[in-house]
Amino acid sequence: MSRVTLTQFLIEQQRNQKMIPADLRLLIEVVARAVKTISVHVGKGAVAGLLGNAGTDNVQGEAQKKLDVVANEVLLHANEWGGHLAAMASEELDDPSYIPKTYPKGEYLLVFDPLDGSSNIDVNISVGTIFSVLRCPANMEPTEEAFLQTGRRQVAAGYAVYGPSTMLVLTVGTGTHGFTLDREFGSWVLTHGDIRIPEDTKEFAINASRSRFWEPPVQRYIAELQQGADGPRGQDFNMRWVASMVADVHRILARGGIFLYPLDEKNRPRGGHLRLLYEANPMAMVVEQAGGAASTGREPVLDLVPQGLHQRVPVILGSRHEVERVVAYHAE
Ligand code: AHG
Ligand code: MN
Ligand code: MN
Ligand code: MN
């Protein structure tokens, strides 16, 4: 069996599509290596004493899990010495992390959610890592301002999901491709080339415990789905909610669906729940590159001009026709 590894895939992209300069390829390989390390830590769980809280809070006031902290440090240390980055930003850091003076500085900016779905760590349910790559604007210091670029400017984005198998799903703007970690060989094998999200779906994902806070367009949309074959949609819909964005988005890439973390009365003061730079934007690029759509309900996620590193936004993404319907309800 001839197996295409991540390295071969990236070199071919560099050669044929001219999409990946050598230092971007290095960056992606380093992220993939870091993710492999995180996968080992996640897999050891209680044996390594890695479950539970770290006893600290992050900038958003969330209690950090031990694995949030470990995954963050793995990504920071893996990426600081390669010479490909100008700076990094993370859910778990208040401010950008600069490359130590002892190492050369590159032109890229790396943003990540080191451990997504951390409420699922202690219950042994899939978690993940999300990342986004931007170019540092020319003649600009890599301060917070440099990171505040629209999602359309991402040069690469992706996520890892630590599930029954560990997968890396990646886009460099030439479709969305999935690699599965072969644990014995330690290599990433291309198993899901050019993933396409079905345009229609009978599956939705939303935290329905918040329904009383939703805005009218979301109330209407979900009510119609719940009426099933007896309602205006004339068919039954099924619901899933993992509460790890990576796992919910991964399911949608695999078999279609719509994911909503909308604006509601409770999260309105913060602008939404999910974070634009390291959750919404990378996932929106992955989904759009797979033929799906990603919106706030009012505009495409990728068109938002970020106002801050940890800005939150509403997110509605997945099967194109369903996302378009929710957007239409918002416009009415
Ligand atoms: P994180 O663990 O990185 O802070 O992200 C958690 C996010 C996301 O993964 C998930 O979709 C959502 O929060 C879950 O929210 P609920 O607790 O409202 O279900
Ligand atoms: Mn968190
Ligand atoms: Mn997250
Ligand atoms: Mn996180």
Automatic annotation (TrEMBL):
Keywords linked to the UniProt accession: Carbohydrate metabolism, Cytoplasm, Hydrolase, Magnesium, Metal-binding
Residues forming coiled coils: none
Residues noted as binding Mg(2+) 1 in the record, renumbered to the chain: E91, D113, L115
Superkingdom of this protein's organism: Bacteria
Major subcellular location class: cytoplasm
Molecular functions (GO terms): fructose 1,6-bisphosphate 1-phosphatase activity
Domain Fructose-1-6-bisphosphatase class 1 C-terminal: 197-330
Cellular location(s): Cytoplasm
Chemical reaction(s) catalysed: beta-D-fructose 1,6-bisphosphate + H2O = beta-D-fructose 6-phosphate + phosphate
Sites where the protein binds Mg(2+) 2: D113, D116, E279
Pfam family, one: FBPase
PANTHER family named among the record's database cross-references: FRUCTOSE-1,6-BISPHOSPHATASE-RELATED, SEDOHEPTULOSE-1,7-BISPHOSPHATASE, CHLOROPLASTIC
NCBIfam families with a match to the protein in the record: PRK09293.1-1, PRK09293.1-3, PRK09293.1-4
Family that this chain belongs to: Belongs to the FBPase class 1 family.
Protein name (record): Fructose-1,6-bisphosphatase class 1
Source organism of the structure: Uliginosibacterium silvisoli
